[in-house]
Design brief:
This protein is an alpha/beta fold and 219 residues long. Helices cover 29% and strands 31% of the residues. It is built from three helices and nine strands; from the N terminus they run αβββββαββββα. Strands 1, 2, 3, 4, 5, 6, 7, 8 and 9 form a nine-stranded mixed sheet that branches. The N terminus is likely disordered.
Length: 219
């Protein structure tokens, strides 16, 4: 008997070809790189360290005003400098929100953590406050003018007596932190470290400056 070799039917050949194409498409989809211009988003999520606990029962309601930003820093773009007096922005790496917007909840959390205020509220109305803290991001940039590169953070803040509409005190907080790597990711790490320190200084400032403010209504 002569052995004969069977050949796949047209239907079977079609199924095999379709399966091969599907497997190739799946492999290509896994291996396809992310487009180079896809944004890489970063956050500020710093936490202030503890400060001295108040000795008296807290009576003041503190309002945290909506932070502002100086021109050039009122954007979600991450700023850097490579030469003096020239501000640039990374093309792909960005903040999820402008830094001033991300700063607001961090300020509330840091000030609540002091235990020095009866209540800390966001400046959205509805609660009558005794004092208000206003803050401006003057500068938040990664400087490559030095090696290693470093992040420079400048915050200007003032405490206002709401009842008398009087500025109780003002302060400019300047913090620099070296970046662990000379790239945007290293700058983000250094920025969070700088914000952590700035929050601690700002909270201590608010506690000290409000010490002599008379509350509108003592509970």
């Amino acid at each position: 008997m002569i052995a004969t070799r069977s050949t796949p039917s047209a239907h079977v050949r079609h199924a095999i070809a379709a399966g091969a194409l599907a497997a190739l498409a799946a492999a290509c989809s896994v291996m396809t790189p992310v487009p180079a211009d896809t944004p890489v988003l970063h956050v500020l999520d710093a936490k202030a360290g503890p400060i001295a606990a108040p000795v008296a029962k807290p009576v003041l309601v503190l309002e945290v005003g909506t932070p502002r930003a100086a021109p050039g820093f009122d954007t979600a773009a991450i700023a850097y400098v490579q030469k003096a007096y020239t501000l640039d922005y990374f093309a792909v790496h960005r903040w999820v929100e402008p830094p001033a917007q991300m700063l607001a909840p961090l300020l509330v959390r840091a000030l609540e953590g002091t235990g020095a205020f009866r209540t800390v509220v966001r400046g959205v109305g509805g609660v009558r406050a005794d004092v208000r803290l206003d803050t401006e991001v003057v500068r938040l940039q990664q400087s490559f003018l030095t090696r290693p590169s470093r992040v420079e953070l400048v915050l200007r803040t003032q405490l206002v007596d709401v009842g008398s509409r009087r500025v109780v005190a003002t302060r400019t907080i300047e913090v620099t932190r070296d970046a662990p790597t000379d790239d945007p990711e290293g700058g983000v790490v250094a920025a969070n470290a700088a914000v952590t320190r700035a929050l601690q200084e700002l909270a201590a400032f608010a506690v000290a400056a409000s010490a002599d403010v008379v509350p509108l209504a003592v509970p």
